[in-house]
Every structure is written in C-alpha cells, then in structure tokens.
C-alpha cells in the first residue's frame, strides 16, 4: 500500500519541477535575454497563457503542499483516510495543471516562434505542422530575435518534459490514494473479523 512517506516524497519532488516550469515560462518572455521584445509584444501569444507559471507551476504547488502536509492532517484527524481523500483531490488538480501545461506547450511548439521574417513579424512555421523542428536549415528564416527558434524549442521541450513528470507523480498519488481509500477499509474489516 502507498504510505504517507511516499506521498511526502512526491510532494518534495513536485516543488523543484514546479519551480523549473515557472522559470522556463518566464524565460520565454525574454528571447535573446532582452526585455524589448515583450514590451513591443513580439513574443508568441502562447506565453500569455502562463502554462508554466500557472499550470505547471503555481497550480502544482497546491498538491505539493498537500502531499507534504498529509502527516499533520493524520495527526489532527486521527486517521489517514481523511488525508488520502484530500490527496486524491490535490492529485486531480495536479493532473489538470500538468495537462494544461503539456497541451499549451505542445501547441506553441507546433505553431513555432513569432519572429521577424520576410519584412514583418509573423509565425513563419505556423502551417507546416511542426515539420520545422526537423529542418534546422529553415530556422534561419527567423531574423530577430537571434536564435529564437532554438530558444523556443529548448524551453518548450523542457516544459513538456517537466509537465509529463508532474503528471506521472500526481497520477501515482491518485492511484495510491484510491488504493488506500478502497483497500484499507476492507483490510480493517478482515482484521476485525479475525480478532472476534
């Protein structure tokens, strides 16, 4: 059965993942390390969906805190079934946040960066279905910001990987909480019937 120690370890693991998601999303606002692009609204529209700051970041801190605080909940309630039920709801919230981060990052990666190309600010790879990812020779179509394709691909790939890990950790806790909620009462009934 899944233990409180296991849930706490998942909580500890979620905190650096959420922090990295927030940092990656913030960096997407500053291609080439310059603030002028965000001031002039020359960044991809998907960064304004805050997939890393919200979905993979702040939302993920809620299940992390719940998983870490489950021991205190058990001490105050006197039973761990209450804590496990809370962890199931927190895990569902974490699944929603990580899914949101993953989906928006995927859409942003497929659309490609917003850059200066062909004498205007456009999405030059918008209609190629992500094929630009495997055609590095086309990346030079983006003239400004410098290295914007590499910047976006790297950070969005990081967000994809982190959100997939977050999803996995929350799914593990969801399964653990449900197993405890279903199996533990059965085990207690068997113990009680054996003792009487």
UniProtKB/TrEMBL annotation:
<keyword id="KW-0812">Transmembrane</keyword>
<protein>
    <submittedName>
        <fullName>Transmembrane 4 L6 family member 1</fullName>
    </submittedName>
</protein>
<dbReference type="InterPro" id="IPR008661">
    <property type="entry name" value="L6_membrane"/>
</dbReference>
<keyword id="KW-0472">Membrane</keyword>
<feature type="transmembrane region" description="Helical">
    <location>
        <begin position="153"/>
        <end position="175"/>
    </location>
</feature>
<dbReference type="Pfam" id="PF05805">
    <property type="entry name" value="L6_membrane"/>
</dbReference>
<feature type="transmembrane region" description="Helical">
    <location>
        <begin position="12"/>
        <end position="31"/>
    </location>
</feature>
<comment type="similarity">
    <text>Belongs to the L6 tetraspanin family.</text>
</comment>
<dbReference type="GO" id="GO:0016020">
    <property type="term" value="C:membrane"/>
</dbReference>
<keyword id="KW-1133">Transmembrane helix</keyword>
<feature type="transmembrane region" description="Helical">
    <location>
        <begin position="82"/>
        <end position="110"/>
    </location>
</feature>
<feature type="transmembrane region" description="Helical">
    <location>
        <begin position="46"/>
        <end position="70"/>
    </location>
</feature>
């Amino acid at each position: 059965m899944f233990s409180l120690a296991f849930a706490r370890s998942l909580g500890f693991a979620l905190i650096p993942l959420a922090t990295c998601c927030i940092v990656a999303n913030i960096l997407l606002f500053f291609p080439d390390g310059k603030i002028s692009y965000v001031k002039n609204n020359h960044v991809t529209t998907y960064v304004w969906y805050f997939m890393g700051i919200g979905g993979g970041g702040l939302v993920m801190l809620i299940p992390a805190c719940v998983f870490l605080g489950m021991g205190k909940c058990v001490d105050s309630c006197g039973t761990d079934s209450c804590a496990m039920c809370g962890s199931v709801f927190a895990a569902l919230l974490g699944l929603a946040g990580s899914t949101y981060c993953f989906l928006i990052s995927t859409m942003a990666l497929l659309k490609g960066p917003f850059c200066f190309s062909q004498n205007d600010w456009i999405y030059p790879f918008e209609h190629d279905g992500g094929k630009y990812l495997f055609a590095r020779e086309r990346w030079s179509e983006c003239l400004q910001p410098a290295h914007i394709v590499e910047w976006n691909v790297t950070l969005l790939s990081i967000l994809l990987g982190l959100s997939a890990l977050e999803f996995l950790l929350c799914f593990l806790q969801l399964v653990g909480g449900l197993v405890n909620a279903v199996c533990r009462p059965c085990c207690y009934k068997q113990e009680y019937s054996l003792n009487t």
